[in-house]
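Narrative of accomplishments. A recurring question from our advisory board has been how the design workflow behaves on a single, concrete structure rather than in aggregate. To address it, we present the structure tokens for one chain from the evaluation set, followed by the sequence designed for it. No filtering or post-editing was applied between the two.
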């Protein structure tokens, strides 16, 4: 299904390393600076160069889907399913679409709806889950909840310190990211404050979910946005804050009361092999449903 090796290298150069989920692993090897990654990577973790051909299905795309994809792939492997699944580091939803069209990957991971030009090109989506996007702090921060007014004031620079007197260190994502789009859909005022904070340097922009995760882990007083499922599935020492008395959990998402959510999906393209269709039936198994529950996701079939 893949094109010539040279075309594969061009298409996958940005993929980074590949998680060998077929071996039951759940993440990528830590870089040399251990302060920039979760404190306890799973045992046996390793990566392979993207130029190495792998047997099985290669999945890649949005960093918002990465933790869930690794969890599902682990369940897939434990259940003895085939072919093997290999989950790559993040290349974004747009990168997943292009890689599918190039035949460089078999299944894409998306955290936003497909555009009309992407579906016209032959890419289609299989809804996966609804995820809660939360405002997040380091677990050492005693703060448990904020109001939406306080969030706006923080990103406007009007509220600069936490209750314990430590300075607020603002983090945000780039304009057009699925997280910033979710916030804009729920609160244009908050989204505008976050965009302005980034423009004037009051907030530091992180360009992937994994960069945001690492900045939150290592930044005392940091406030940023991250999917709750990433925190739960990776066992991170981070806290998702309540906002206006609402909890960012599956119950709030299912009830439609949590305002900041993302739709996650699997993507298939014109070069996806027939065996990739087995994932659709797998998502309805008890094992897959348990994986959704562990991450605090609302599976698409229940929406």
């Amino acid at each position: 299904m893949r094109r010539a090796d040279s075309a594969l290298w061009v298409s996958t150069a940005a993929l980074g390393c590949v998680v060998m989920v077929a071996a039951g692993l759940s993440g990528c090897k830590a870089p040399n600076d251990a302060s920039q990654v979760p404190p306890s990577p799973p045992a046996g973790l390793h990566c392979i160069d993207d130029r190495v051909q792998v047997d099985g299905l290669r999945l890649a795309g949005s960093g918002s889907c990465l933790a869930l994809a690794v969890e599902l792939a682990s369940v897939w492997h434990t259940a003895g399913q085939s072919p093997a699944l290999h989950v790559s580091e993040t290349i974004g939803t747009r990168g997943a679409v292009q890689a599918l069209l190039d035949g460089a990957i078999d299944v894409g991971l998306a955290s936003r709806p497909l555009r009309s030009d992407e579906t016209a090109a032959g890419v289609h989506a299989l809804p996966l889950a609804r995820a809660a996007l939360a405002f997040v702090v380091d677990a050492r921060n005693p703060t448990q909840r904020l109001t939406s007014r306080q969030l706006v004031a923080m990103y406007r620079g009007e509220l600069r310190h936490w209750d314990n007197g430590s300075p607020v260190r603002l983090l945000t994502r780039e304009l057009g990211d699925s997280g910033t789009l979710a916030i804009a859909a729920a609160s244009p005022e908050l989204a505008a404050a976050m965009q302005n904070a980034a423009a004037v340097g009051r907030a530091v922009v992180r360009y992937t979910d994994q960069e945001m995760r690492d900045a939150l882990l290592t930044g005392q007083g940091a406030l940023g946005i991250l999917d709750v499922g990433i925190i739960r599935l990776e066992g991170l020492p981070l806290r998702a804050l309540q906002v206006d008395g609402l909890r960012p959990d599956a119950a709030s998402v299912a009830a439609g009361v949590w305002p900041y959510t993302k739709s996650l999906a699997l993507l298939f393209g014109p070069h996806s092999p027939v065996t990739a269709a087995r994932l659709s039936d797998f998502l309805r198994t008890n094992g897959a449903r348990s994986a959704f529950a562990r991450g605090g996701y609302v599976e698409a079939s229940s929406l």
